């Protein structure tokens, strides 16, 4: 990418009150080396304009673990173990919300960006508001719980020290919610179900408890079966559109790199520094998951199942961290009524540097990867937190920063938009065309 990227732009201003003007103007920005950055820039612009995308999904229902939890674990942990999770303490939430919200991140999660892109509000955590009014859940609910596993707490050989909640429990909570609705069939037909990512905790607990790679591989089919069984159960209830993420490359996670620190040199990828055998394990999970999802598609040809390839998306960033720049434009755009070439120059000059740290946590308690197995971001002793989370991939050694979540969400949304069957069932043609103009195909 050129260092003087602004010289390629003509002089034009964008009126943020005119979406069509923004779209037609931004179509000019289509130089070859920066397609992905332009797509992400478009994603940010649209997210900053509070105009809902009408005619598609009226709500989102999310299931999973801390990758998607927007506050459920806080409510559950107080009742279960009397200990508040570290996501409830600063500096969590500092980038976007400017306070802890229960998200294991400095800002927004992938599920937050997806909701924004579809013109929907952030999903309220079910366990915080389940005794309230149904109006709060009008546009969806988040059932994801930090620490939750795909496997039941009674599954032999694995102890979950964080929560007894599993995917089965989340689905049961969802069914309790549906029992309060007289229109739940129509609700499900017009909803997007985000099933995961989940299963990562089952694996991490097993590895931390000394299980061998062979032992953990043996229960991958059980993890995948839990996910697909939940999907089938929701299909029977009337759900028609699912987004199902795969596992991340866990061999690049500071938590795993710390757990297996001191491994033989030949076990590390010389380009990324990730542990190759752990990444191969993630790929094994994903391959089996995709195989089972295809079986569901064959059994239910009218059901839309979109696989979200978290693994490939994040590996692209690990392989070329300088290509994918820092994404500070949410704050940058917030107070700008018009966007001129000067603003664009400022914007691109700030995102060109890319990610400075890929394997070290921004917020942690020290060590080579700034991650300690006995501590966590937000808990004492004093947390060591970087000044610029957007230049780091990992927020706390386990979860990504908002900057990475935004990049992942962009690709996931593209995968969703490219699911023609899903769009034809749920979105009018005018909305499909609008979305395809806003989100052209990226190089990610």
From TrEMBL:
GO MF annotation terms: hydrolase activity, acting on ester bonds
SUPFAM superfamilies: SGNH hydrolase (SSF52266)
UniProt KW Glycoprotein keyword: yes
Family to which the UniProt record says this protein belongs: Belongs to the 'GDSL' lipolytic enzyme family.
Entry-linked InterPro entries: GDSL (IPR001087), SGNH_hydro_sf (IPR036514), SGNH_plant_lipase-like (IPR035669)
Record protein name field: Uncharacterized protein
UniProtKB keywords: Glycoprotein, Hydrolase, Signal
Gene3D superfamilies: SGNH hydrolase (3.40.50.1110)
Species annotation: Gossypium stocksii
Superkingdom, taxonomy of origin: Eukaryota
A Pfam family per the record: Lipase_GDSL
Record's keyword annotation contains Signal: yes
Lineage, top ranks: Eukaryota, Viridiplantae, Streptophyta, Embryophyta, Tracheophyta
């Amino acid at each position: 990418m050129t260092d003087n990227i602004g010289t390629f732009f003509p002089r034009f201003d964008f009126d943020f009150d005119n979406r069509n003007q923004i779209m037609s103007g931004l179509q000019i920005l289509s130089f070859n080396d920066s397609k992905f950055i332009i797509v992400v820039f478009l994603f940010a612009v649209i997210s900053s304009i509070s105009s809902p995308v009408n005619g598609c999904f009226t709500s989102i229902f999310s299931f999973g673990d801390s990758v998607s939890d927007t506050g459920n674990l806080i409510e559950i942990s107080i009742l279960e173990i009397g200990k508040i999770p570290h996501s409830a303490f600063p500096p969590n939430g500092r980038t976007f919300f400017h306070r802890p919200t229960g998200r294991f991140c400095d800002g927004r999660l992938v599920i937050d960006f997806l909701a924004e892109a579809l013109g929907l509000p952030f999903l309220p955590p079910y366990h915080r508001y389940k005794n309230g009014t149904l109006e709060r859940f009008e546009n969806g609910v988040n059932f994801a719980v930090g620490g939750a596993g795909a496997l039941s707490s009674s599954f032999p050989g694995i102890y979950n020290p964080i929560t007894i909640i599993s995917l089965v429990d989340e689905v049961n909570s969802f069914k309790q919610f549906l029992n309060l609705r007289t229109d739940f069939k129509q609700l499900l037909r017009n909803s997007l179900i985000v099933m995961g990512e989940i299963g990562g905790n089952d694996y991490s607990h097993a590895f931390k408890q000394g299980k061998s790679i062979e032992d953990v591989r043996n229960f991958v089919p059980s993890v995948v079966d839990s996910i697909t069984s939940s999907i089938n159960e929701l299909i029977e209830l009337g759900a028609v559109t699912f987004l199902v993420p795969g596992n991340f490359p866990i061999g690049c996670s500071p938590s795993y790199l710390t757990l297996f620190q001191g491994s033989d040199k030949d076990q590390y990828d010389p380009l990324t520094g990730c542990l190759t055998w752990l990444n191969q394990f993630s790929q094994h999970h994903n391959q089996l998951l995709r195989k089972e999802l295809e079986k569901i598609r064959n059994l239910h040809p009218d059901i839309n199942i979109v696989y979200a390839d978290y693994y490939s998306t994040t590996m692209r960033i690990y392989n070329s961290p300088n290509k994918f720049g820092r994404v500070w434009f949410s704050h940058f755009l917030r107070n700008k009524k018009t966007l001129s070439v000067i603003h664009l120059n400022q914007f691109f000059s700030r995102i060109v540097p890319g990610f400075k740290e890929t394997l070290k946590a921004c917020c942690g308690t020290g060590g080579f990867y700034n991650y300690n197995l006995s501590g966590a971001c937000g808990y004492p002793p004093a947390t060591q937190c970087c000044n610029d989370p957007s230049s780091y991939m990992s927020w706390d050694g386990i979860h990504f920063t908002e900057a990475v979540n935004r990049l992942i969400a962009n690709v996931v949304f593209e995968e969703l938009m490219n699911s023609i069957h899903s769009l034809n069932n749920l979105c009018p043609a005018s909305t499909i065309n609008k979305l395809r103009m806003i989100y052209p195909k990226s190089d990610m």
